[in-house]
TrEMBL record:
4Fe-4S ferredoxin-type domain boundaries: 453-480
PANTHER family: PHOSPHOADENOSINE PHOSPHOSULFATE REDUCTASE, SULFATE ADENYLYLTRANSFERASE SUBUNIT 2
Transmembrane segments: none
Protein name, UniProt field: 4Fe-4S ferredoxin-type domain-containing protein
Pfam families given in the database record: PAPS_reduct
GO terms, molecular function: oxidoreductase activity
CDD domains recorded: PAPS_reductase-like_YbdN
Length: 504
């Protein structure tokens, strides 16, 4: 994605040219996964604390010397949370949560280093990227400035990690009002196009359902649907592991689907949800949603955006979700950036979840395996009782202090770079067929054969979650287990749907 900045007005642009002064925007070199959004008061408070702890009192004012009314945070690749701090038309540095020290740190970029160079220790030599330029001792700063770049402390050495290219930031006083003046027409155009798209979908498919998650993007969709003049209802799905602030948003919904206590009933059998084992999405989201919306609508509107993640980058604007048979899904703001969405929210005064202003970038289940350690620490700070329940479960089922601290439960196959913190979970060992009750095995074998590993796994570990019975009327839940009736035609759909088989 691209980010442009007006040199004259010193504000980011969501189109090529500034609507306030007519200046062609300067392209800011950002990470391709960045998707910048406004930095809120809690973000700036964190940045100030980190800067002044690492570089001394007054460093925040030195770095943001034109003011802090127009500062963006953009995602950057890292093991945990990392933000590109963008202001004055440049990336001034990276604010990141360091898993090794379990603390936030700030690494200045070239533009940032120019502004705080008098606060940084120096190594008076020119060196290439990757070159060792000095010894590092305990207590030495994490970063030092060389004559042509920045050296990072890695073990007991200082290594050049960035070579300067002559980039500088803009020196023009910031004015928050210009942020809206410079982008107002484009915000309006994007909103009008999205509303027209929604209207056309309504004319084609009839009554629409706005799938409202409690996040900013679905709040934008709800506002656009209202402005479109179409006939719609609002649906909210309560997974049972949402934060109270998100559940509060459900008051906007006409229909509330609920997974109840499904998570806590099934997690002892399935184990913690993982990035490569997302049983939670099937059991807590898709099944309740299908049950609630089956026969209600032919199309749902979601606040999905392609810039949210690399996976969604390939997503279409309209598609059929295999888990919602007969229901199309449409993403009216699929091409919007986070900045587009936030400018719409701020300029149209759309009510959004207050968790955003408490340091959360994305809204979802509080123990989602896709979240970062820094997110979990915020949950622990704001809602300690929620996090304690999750930690108590992990400790009671054999997870070690280190595995819990570093979130190693978030994977079945722990990535190599995280293995320095410990090992992940043990894989489920498939019981031998002779240890599975024959009656149970033969009942599930109707779907395939007794030798099929999928049948053996289901026969051994079925949790009775109801995913299979939701999508197939030949299956019933009896005595807490899936039971295959004589209506089964051996299509094998249930074996493809079962959450147990996601990673086996």
């Amino acid at each position: 994605m691209k980010l442009r900045w007006c040199r004259n007005c010193n504000v980011p642009l969501i189109s090529d040219r500034c609507e306030s002064c007519g200046e062609l925007g300067l392209e800011v070199p950002i990470s391709r996964t960045s998707d910048p959004r406004p930095a809120w008061e809690s973000d700036l408070k964190l940045l100030r604390e980190v800067l002044e702890k690492e570089y001394g009192a007054g460093c925040y004012a030195d770095l943001l010397r034109n003011g802090d009314s127009v500062v963006l945070f953009g995602r950057a690749p890292y093991m945990d949370t990392s933000y590109e701090v963008i202001s004055d038309g440049a990336v001034l540095g990276h604010l990141f949560f360091d898993l090794f020290s379990f603390s936030w740190k700030f690494k200045p970029s070239e533009a940032g280093a120019v502004r705080i160079e008098h606060r940084m220790e120096k190594i008076n030599r020119v060196a290439d990227k990757g070159e060792v330029v000095g010894e590092a001792k305990e207590g030495d700063p994490d970063f030092k400035l060389t004559l042509n770049g920045i050296a990072c402390k890695i073990g007991n050495k200082y290594v050049i990690t960035r070579v300067f290219k002559g980039r500088k930031a803009i020196d023009v006083k910031q004015d928050r009002k210009l942020l809206f003046e410079a982008n107002e027409r484009e915000i309006g155009l994007k909103g009008s196009r999205a509303s027209l798209f929604i209207y056309r979908m309504w004319r084609k498919h009839g009554k629409l359902v706005v799938s409202f998650s409690g996040g900013k993007d679905s709040a934008v969709i709800l506002d656009l649907a209202e402005k479109s003049g179409c006939d719609y209802i609002v649906y909210f799905n309560d997974t049972g592991i949402e934060m109270p602030e998100t559940v509060e948003q459900s008051k906007k919904a006409d229909i509330v689907g609920s997974a109840g206590d499904s998570f806590w009933r099934y997690v002892p059998k399935f184990g913690p949800p993982a990035r490569d084992y997302r049983w939670c999405c099937k059991v807590l989201k898709l099944v309740p949603t299908y049950k609630a919306l089956k026969g209600v609508t032919k199309m749902t509107l979601v606040g999905q955006r392609r810039f949210e993640s690399l996976d969604r980058m390939r997503s279409k604007k309209v598609w059929m979700n295999d888990w919602l048979p007969g229901i199309l899904t449409a993403a009216p703001i699929n091409e919007w950036t986070a900045l587009d969405a936030w400018l719409y929210v701020m300029s149209r005064k759309v009510e959004v979840n207050k968790l955003y202003f408490m340091g959360f970038e994305r809204i979802g289940c509080y123990l989602c395996p896709s979240a970062r350690i820094s997110d979990f620490l915020k949950v622990k700070e704001i809602h300690p009782e929620l996090w304690k329940r999750w930690e108590d479960f992990l400790f009671s089922t054999g997870w070690s202090e280190n595995q819990v601290k570093y979130g190693l439960w978030r994977w079945i196959d722990v990535p190599k770079r995280f293995r320095i913190f410990g090992e992940g979970r043990k894989r489920i060992e498939l019981s031998e067929a002779s240890k599975i009750p024959r009656e149970r095995l033969m009942n599930l074998a109707k779907t395939s054969s007794p030798e099929d590993p999928a049948v053996m796994i289901r026969a051994s570990f079925c949790a009775g979650c109801g995913v299979c019975s939701t999508y197939c009327d030949a299956i019933e839940i009896r005595n807490g287990l899936a039971f295959i009736t004589d209506r089964c035609n051996s299509c094998g759909l249930c074996n493809r749907l079962c959450p147990l088989l996601l990673h086996h």
